[in-house]
Amino acid sequence: MKSVFALISFTLIFSGCSPLIKQAIKNDPSIIYEALKKDPEGYRDAVMHVQKSLQASDKLNEVAKLLKDPFTDAKIDNSRPFVGPKDAPVTIIKYADYQCGYCARAHFAVKELQKKYGKNVRVMYKQLPVLGPKSVPPARYFEAISMVDNAKALEFHAKIYSNQRTLQQKGTEYVVSVAKEVMGADFKKAKKNYDDSLTDKNHPVALRLASDASEATGPKLGFQGTPAFLVEGAKVNGFKPELLEELVIQILKNKGIKLDKNNS
């Protein structure tokens, strides 16, 4: 069975690029037919093996392509909320919309990524409320809260994503209730930031919202939907957790950071 598996795998991988093998199959197609008859399960396993090999190769090629053309003009403001060490070798910027289902999935996927790679990764959050007017209040409250306390802004962020369905059902009413819950006695400060930013375009909250949108949708990035990411400048559009991880792995390797056997 192993010899048949090897034959099929070899044939599937190299028939497209080896003239000799290609000609041999053309002259006698029964080579594959006989192998299939003798070991149909082995043929199936061989096909799956080759598919995985090709997918892995495609993924590595995509990672290499993304790393060749990083976006280096993203604004990194360390006074904004982020999770992970300030000096982490990999910084991920996430542009997101609190109403977006894939953004919620990305929230949990990125948490797992950070859990796996620990101090090597930090995540910074930026706002891209593209799904309509209901997307703006949670984004604005996140920034309004962060002007008072970054840790509480991150708590707000986590609660909103963990209860996204309630957000979608109740809208701003729920946003305000979460803001009150996390801020406690300081809610009035966050509320003032929120209210002032509605009428003052130069308020720090308003400036952050405008800057994030301009950066994300500008000609150099051109993100039109959410979630979107920059991984040390490498652009990822959409919910692609495997690609994010491959980028993290390659960037760490490029920086000479050794990964343990569970992370490679």
The gist of it:
This protein has helices spanning 2-14, 19-27, 30-38, 40-68, 101-117, 136-146, 150-162, 164-170, 172-183, 187-199, 204-217, 241-254; strands at 82-83, 90-96, 121-127, 228-231, 234-237.
Residue fraction in strands = 5-15%
- Helix and strand pattern: HHHHEEHEHHHHHHEEH
Order of strands across the widest beta sheet?
1-3-2-4-5
Number-wise, the strands total 5
| Uncertain ranges | none
The separation of the N and C termini measures 31 Å
What can be said about the biggest beta sheet?
A: 5 strands, mixed
**CATH-derived architecture of the largest domain:** 3-Layer(aba) Sandwich
The radius of gyration computed from the alpha-carbon positions, rounded to a whole number of angstroms, is 24 Å
Shape: elongated
Tally the helices. 12
CATH structural fold name of the largest domain: Glutaredoxin
Provide the domain count. Answer: 2
Helix content: 55-70%
Class inferred from helices and paired strands: alpha+beta
CATH superfamily descriptor of the largest domain: Glutaredoxin
Integer average pLDDT = 87
Assign the CATH class of the largest domain.
Answer: Alpha Beta
